[in-house]
Input
Amino acid sequence: MPVFRSSDIGLDLGTSMVLCYIRKKGIVLREPSVVAIERGTGKLVAVGSEAKEMLGRASDDLIVMRPLQDGVISSFDATERMLGQYFGRIVGNRIFFKPRCVIAVPSGATEVEKRAVIETSEGAGARYTYLIEEPLAAAIGAGVDIFSAKGSMVLDIGAGTADMVVTSLGKAVVSDSIRVGGDKFDAAIVRYFKRQHGIVIGTRAAEELKIAFGSAYPRKDAPMMDVKGRSLGGGLPLALQLDSNELTYALSEPLHDIVEHLKDTLEQTPPELCGDITENGICITGGSAQLYGLDKFISEQTGVPCYIAEDPVACVAIGAGKVLEDIKLYDGVLYDYRRGDYYEG
Ligand SMILES: Nc1ncnc2c1ncn2[C@@H]1O[C@H](COP(=O)(O)OP(=O)(O)OP(=O)(O)O)[C@@H](O)[C@H]1O
Ligand SMILES: [Mg+2]
Output
């Protein structure tokens, strides 16, 4: 029977951030999912925040990349090396104490994508890897009582995916996952400015504008913002002062995509549980939950009250970690891929 040790890791292997939770210590690592590799030699130059600083600024002999896209691993080797570095920081080089891992994966991940997560984590030094559905981990981390007979709903919007789940009696009753999140928000902003104002900006600049001025609905008090890039025609540097409410128009398409899936999920939910959700509200987690006015927007669109979890970015890692801390309680949500069944203590 597997016994979980103190060095075991609850891991949120996200498209934009990796968070690690250690039993009884809580979150011990929060780093961007970015690696910098030397072209030609393949030498790992930097990972995490150090590598993120180099994104878009590196010279030709450096490859700076995000090894996960849309919630799943796109570069196997880079993810393994990044995780290897993070595991090393957490457990050191104690080869006899290889950690066991609980890793959250989007509920829409394919079998191949799930297997890639397991192989990558074990290649990076984990002894054994269990998987948990990302929105279930988010629910546990947000403090939602998933064991209650009453229905609860959680929506996790990260950088790559929006995952949603309705829980009751410790199970995911209905869940859905779409490849829309903060990255698609940034891309929508880039497209909007190009089309409407003939200005080309980078995705990092778009993300900064979104975080500083973005809103899910138009605001009366919207400030003006400086948008810097280059002109579409001549390619020369261009700076414009624009109403920040324009970001709301730019974001409307990806936001409506999420709302449509949320409505479909609610439609598939048994009526009693729907009643409970209307009473308790939808809990929103993930970094993109911090978009100004998102709770109000989703509530207006669905007619169901919404609230943002405390520390929304950390919920998935906290949830994966809580599962490690009380493995018996959560055995029904922990998937043991090799056995092809849920964990049995
Ligand atoms: N204040 C903010 N307003 C809007 N978006 C924000 C804010 N702060 C962070 N974000 C966005 O949150 C996203 C990162 O969220 P998170 O760390 O939950 O993603 P992730 O877990 O790595 O991704 P995924 O779960 O999709 O794999 C980024 O797209 C970032 O731009
Ligand atoms: Mg996430």
Observations:
- Residues 12, 14-17, 71, 158-161, 181-183, 207, 210-211, 214, 286-288, 290-291, 313 surround adenosine-5'-triphosphate (ligand 1) (CB under 6 Å).
- Residues 182-250 form a domain with the Actin; Chain A, domain 4 fold (CATH 3.90.640.10).
- The mean pLDDT is 93.
- Residues 222 and 244 are 6 Å apart (CA to CA).
